[in-house]
Amino acid sequence: MKLPNFACLLCQQYSDHPVCEYCKTDTCFLAKGGYKDNLLTYPQIRRQFRHSGYDNLYACGEYQWPFTDLVHNMKFHRCLTSARILADWFVEFCIHEDTLLPDCLLPVPVHFRRFMHRRFNQAAVIARHISNQIDRPVYHDWACRKGGKTQHKLSRSQRLLNLRRAFSTSIPHDVHHVAIIDDVMTTGVTADVLAKQLRAHQPALIIDIWVMALTTCNPLIQRTRCAD
Ligand SMILES: [Zn+2]
Questions:
Q1: For 14, phi and psi rounded to 5 degrees?
Q2: What distance in angstroms lies between residue 9's CA and the mean position of ligand 1's atoms?
Q3: Which of 8, 64, 105, 200 is the most exposed place for a label (fewest CB within 10 A)?
Q4: Are the beta carbons of 223 and 67 closer than 8 angstroms?
């Protein structure tokens, strides 16, 4: 029987896996650069992202190759294998035996118009893959987008106000620890607004943010160190 050929999603070379071992070795995982567990314990990360509403931030890498390619393929080419790879990497590099796992996973909702265009929410797909591996449920209806104006036409302060009004959130009262899931964190504002809304309902709630990649102003790790 002739076996099908597989190509690495990133370099298109022959590979038994969706991402070949060479591309994975070349990937800058934050954990390889010494950034482990709660990233808010690192001042250079605390400075870059708004974080007043949540307790812990976990991320797999910086938003550069190959995370840019995987996220782009997932969002714009509906490549769900890319979502699975990101989720697998997150579990491999960010979750350990002693990691305090949340009671449930909360994917950040996409705007209705984007959902109608893309027909899927990438954060929900990633959350489902992580859920399968850590045996925690995904709550899809925890945050509803109420609409809101288009963000890019607004000033910075108007954007924040618009964002605060854009969501309504709710979770069951027996939930004590949650992880908000998204693909990329750029400024942290959306995650922070959502976290603050949840905490307003339940002040003792422990809130994690789990993202696959962070957009950083200054590189956190040098690429030459990544393959160590
Ligand atoms: Zn490759």
A1: -60, 135
A2: 7
A3: 200
A4: no
Q: What domains sit in the chain, N to C, each tagged with a CATH number?
A: 29-223 (3.40.50)
Ligand 1 centroid–CA 25 distance in Å is: 9
Question: What is the per-residue pLDDT across 39-86, written as a single tens digit (0 to 9) for each?
Answer: 999 999 999 999 999 999 999 999 999 999 999 999 888 899 999 999
* Distance separating alpha carbons of residues 13 and 9, to the nearest angstrom: 8
Contact 205, 178 (CB under 8 A): yes
Q: What separation in Å is there between the alpha carbon of 129 and the centre of ligand 1?
A: 22
pLDDT at position 2: 47
pLDDT in tens, 88-130: 999 999 999 989 999 999 999 886 666 666 678 999 999 999 9
pLDDT (0 to 100) of residue 169 = 86
Rounded to two decimals, what is the model's pTM? 0.90
- Report CA(76)–ligand 1 centroid distance (Å): 20
Distance 19 CA to ligand 1 centre (A): 5
Reply yes or no on whether the pLDDT at 145 is more than 80.
no
- Residue listed under structure tokens 């590189």: 219
Please give the single-letter amino acid code of residue 140: H
Ligand 1 centroid distance, CA of 205 (Å):
41
C-alpha torsion sign, points 36, 41, 43, 46: positive
DSSP 136: -
